[in-house]
Amino acid sequence: MTHPHDGGGHHHHHDHDHEHQAVPHDLALRVKALESLLVDKGLVDRAALDAIVDAYETRIGPRNGARVVARAWVDPDYRSRLLTNATAAIAELGYGGGQGEDMVVLENTPKVHNMVVCTLCSCYPWPVLGLPPVWYKSAPYRSRAVIDPRGVLREFGVELPDEVEVRVWDSTAELRYLVLPERPAGTESMTEDELAELVTRDSMIGTGRINTKDAKDTKDRKGR
Amino acid sequence: MNGVHDMGGMHGMGPIRPEPNEPVFHAAWEARVYAMTRALRSDGKWNLDSGRHEIEQLPPADYLRMTYYEKWFARLVRRVLRVGLVTRDELDSGHPAPGPKATPGLTAHMVPAMIARGGSARREVAAEPTFAVGDRVRARNIHPAGHTRLPRYARGKIGTIDRDHGVFVFPDTNAQFLGENPQHVYSVRFLARELWGDQASPRDSVYVDLWDAYLERI
N or C terminus: which one in chain B shows less Cβ crowding within 10 Å? Predict the structure, then answer.
């Protein structure tokens, strides 16, 4: 096995990679070799690795956060508990644990827009949103979110009027933040399950909003 | 440390590129690196904070060039070598040296509980808060060469204590295995104009979670 910094050839074979981020072609082989070695030495159990991957690929993701948001939209008491003790309220729906041990929920209103970043690394509320997308961990987002939040939001298609206050939350400690987006107009007749389907990952990071048009489209689609 | 990882407010990093329908992992090796990192038992030889510091200590050019899980892999390799779980010879040959086989600290049936338990950095210990909600504070103008979670853009700036989150492990000492030194963490609200000047909106603000030791009274 070669040293991780030995380099070797660079291939642009991952679509998500930034142009400056090409993965060495033998990386997959080196990872496989390390796993075999750790398994052979009895340091890790291959089935445990499979179980971890499976949990984050199938069970732990933004649909969990969407359920929390939808419950808060339909149940004012739940919403109130969520805003005062987020960790406990989220646990009521069965979510919690690694990188969500100490949660804070931030409520968006017509006057206040919250947006979350981790400028120092990649802190993100895993139990409710899953593992973070590449852009959230990337230098462009981490560098700009704090100095130019309105510009960043514009790139995500969120145009905020000057009179709306933008609050950026830099996750520098072990609190993990979830944004409670505004419930879109025109969704009064929707069920909790239907509402959960409207909630996007980005709306819970604060880089997206759920607009009425999307809501109506979803409802119309369901109606047909 | 004043590293390239501390990038809040930097320019020139390029456009943000959201990926539609992004998969959780982009390749199988990423998933394996993630899982190995979580499955290995630390035995007190690394922790959350020391782990972040390991990534920060990558050479700056490598930090910017490498993908996220490439950094995790570099950390994992260095870590197993540093703490002696694996020798250089074993890594190079791919075969374990003769000797007794270890028992994995984590087996498949333990995984759901491990994930559900997590590992809170909150500590239920008595620690007096130095500040109260509403206090005006200044983030100290300090430049620790080791790990710190006080971002450069906030240093020397004046803000207001917005909420007291309670008592948490102090990363600066924990990362160096110098003790947990638990203390209050506050969400400190900095007006965007305090941080960035008149180019920022007068309405906007940045909330930064800061430990007691990062703050001074004004």
Answer: C
Residues of chain B with Cβ-Cβ distance to A162 below 8 Å are 201, 203
CA distances from A12 to A117, A140, B1 (A): 28, 19, 32
Evaluate whether B72 touches B37 at the Cβ level (below 8 Å). Answer: yes
**Over the stretch A10-28, which tens digit does the pLDDT of each residue have?**
444 444 444 455 667 799 9
Asked if B81 is an interface residue toward chain A (Cβ–Cβ < 8 A), one would say no
| Structural domain count of chain A | 2
Q: Among B70, B24, B38, which Cα is nearest to A28's?
A: B70
Q: How many residue contacts between A and B have a Cβ separation below 8 Å?
A: 296
Tell me, yes or no, whether A28 and A138 share the same domain.
Answer: no
Q: Which CATH number belongs to the domain containing residue A191 in this structure?
A: 3.90.330.10
In a domain, A14, yes or no: no
pLDDT tens, residue by residue, A129-145: 999 999 999 999 999 99
Cβ within 8 Å, pair B165-A175: yes
Look at the block and give the residue holding tokens 């993990």. A176
Checking phi first, is residue B109 left (phi over 0); if not, alpha (psi -120 to 50) or beta?
alpha
Q: Examine residue A3 and state whether it is found in any structural domain, yes or no.
A: no
Same domain assignment for residues A218 and A122: yes
Q: B87 touching A, CB under 8 A?
A: no
Residues A35 and A119 in one domain: no
Q: Which residues contact A50 (CB under 8 A, 6 or more apart)?
A: B35, B108
The active-site residue, picked from A122, A143, A189, A203, is: A122
* Domains present along chain B, CATH in parentheses: 28-117 (1.10.472.20), 136-217 (2.30.30.50)
Q: Record the pTM.
A: 0.92
Any CB–CB contact under 8 A between B32 and chain A?
Answer: yes
In chain B, which among 145-164 make CB contacts under 8 A with chain A?
Answer: 149-151, 153
